[in-house]
Amino acid sequence: MTDLGKFLAETTASGPIPGVSLATLRGGARGPEYYFGVRGAHDRSGVDARTVFEAASLTKPIVAFIALQLAEERLLNLHQPLFDICGEYVPGDLRSRQITAFHVLTHTSGLPNIVCDEAPLRTYFNPGERFSYGSSAFAWLQRAMEIVGRRSLETMARERVFEPLGMLRSSLEWQEHFSKNYAQGHEWEGEPVSKRRVQTAQASWSLLTTASDYIGFVQHVLAGRGLTVASYDQWFMPRVNTRQGDDAEDLHGENPPDHNVAWGLGWGLEPFQNCFFHWGNNPGFRAFVLANRVTKDAIVWFANSARGLRLVHTVVPAVVTGEHPSVQWLRIGHL
């Protein structure tokens, strides 16, 4: 069994990953938490339980949780076109008017992951046709959720998740009190990344949090709290298989399905392992969460380095045993 404390101390001391915040669940109960390394080039103080990291796409499961609550309250119809709720998102693209919250949460919207010259904002296939990881669609879902919920996304997250779960160091927007203890990102060769202080919540990537806070959310999820049994089951039902290849985005359907990895409503799934997962990738930051719904073991970590996902090969087997096809699917390299 790997000594996680020793491994993380050595890894952060040797330089490739400046700082790590990692938390665990064992059988659904809080397990050991680990904090090693430094906050960044801006602050050589040690990472501790209160150090705030960028969670990147680990934002999406929290947004999905809120969306399911809104659906239970009959405020949001997951199968109603978003166009009907909040108007056009992709000008002139008639096919986009079919996109629903269900399509966004399952990454079957047909919209690109990140809008750029190589992938301008348009639909690349009929909504619901297949999987292609698409973060850009979450902005449209956010707009719809804010209209039907009559609250900003940050307010809904605070009222429905952060405050009830005691996630006191979490927000979708920069809070000034974070300035005393936050992590700064670093790229592959250690170059520091300028700190973003997001003023308006972004449903796909803007969560700021700690490992201790986020594992509390995962504990809540594993206990089946906050949703009806029916909604909970819907959350984790495999809806579509991901695609093989070097990128989770597959706009042109060039890759065959990966039958070992699927997507539910906001979570990646390992159906044969009874596990759910998500990864995060912001400039200079990496994050990963994985949990087993049967054993209720779980792990989450945040790293202030573009190399941070590479911890997976050592830290996951030490907490959530068994084969994990999500690691192969994401093509995560070694340290």
What is this entry, summarized?
Residues 8-308 form the Beta-lactamase-related domain. The chain is built from 10 helices and 11 strands.
Strand residues, percent: 15-25%
CATH topology: Beta-lactamase
**String of helices and strands:** HEEEEHHHHHEHHEEEEEEHH
Indicate the structural class.
Answer: alpha+beta
Spatial order of the strands forming the largest sheet: 3-2-1-11-10-9-8-7-6
What is the number of helices? 10
Domain Beta-lactamase-related: 8-308
Organism: Paraburkholderia polaris
InterPro entries: Beta-lactam-related, Beta-lactam/transpept-like, Diverse_Enzym_Activities
Protein name: Beta-lactamase family protein
Explain how this protein is built.
The chain has 335 residues and is α+β, with helices and mostly antiparallel strands. The chain has one domain: Beta-lactamase, CATH 3.40.710. The chain is 25% helix and 20% strand. It has ten helices and eleven strands. It has helices at residues 4-14, 59-72, 82-86, 101-105, 138-149, 153-162, 211-222, 229-235, 312-315, 325-329, and strands at 19-26, 29-40, 43-46, 53-56, 207-209, 240-243, 257-263, 268-270, 275-282, 285-292, 298-303. A nine-stranded antiparallel β-sheet has the order 3-2-1-11-10-9-8-7-6. The chain has a two-stranded antiparallel sheet with strand order 4-5. Strand 9 (275-282) and strand 10 (285-292) form a beta hairpin. The longest helix has 14 residues, at 59-72. The protein is globular, with a radius of gyration of 19 Å.
